[in-house]
């Protein structure tokens, strides 16, 4: 064991024995334009599906009393949920999602966004205001993400 040098250890690192660089789900290797197209498509698909059942609430933007879903904080919640959905899929069902076409990945994410959208239809004006108020703090953002995660878990869509 005396003959192991830093060069030997570095050689091991290059062979993915200890570490491995993997690109994210939205990334298209060696093609920046395709990465932008994939990212744009997937984010539009996610948000179009999310707002499908609550279009009026979405279009209200940040209007006091009627808005809140399409505020920067609301959008942050939905992006954090998307991140958790992707992480769950990678942990439990797929080793990699980068091999899926953009359309296939969008269709894979669709049931999650649809379920959240249906849940949002149950919100009264009071619930909508509470959502908006909760999203004003970091803790509130985290709680809203956890609420949506729990909803998806109960539906059998999301795993721990």
Describe the structure.
The chain has 160 residues and is an all-alpha fold. It has 7 helices and no strands. The protein has one domain. It has helices spanning 6-14, 32-51, 55-59, 72-92, 102-120, 125-134, 138-154. The model has no long low-confidence stretch (mean pLDDT 85).
Architecture blueprint of SSEs:
Layout: H1 6-14, H2 32-51, H3 55-59, H4 72-92, H5 102-120, H6 125-134, H7 138-154
Helix pairs in contact: 2-5, 4-7
Per the principal axes of the C-alpha atoms, what is the gross shape?
A: elongated
Distance between the termini: 41 Å
Mean pLDDT reading:
85
Report the structural category. mainly alpha
Total beta-strand segments: 0
Main sheet attributes: strand count, strand direction, barrel closure: none
Q: What is the number of helical segments per DSSP (H or I, 4+ residues)?
A: 7
Number of domains: 1
Uncertain stretches of 5 or more adjacent residues: none
Measured as a percent range, the helix fraction is 55-70%
Oligomer: single chain
Summarize the structure.
By secondary structure, the protein is mostly helical.
From the structure above, extract its key features:
160 residues
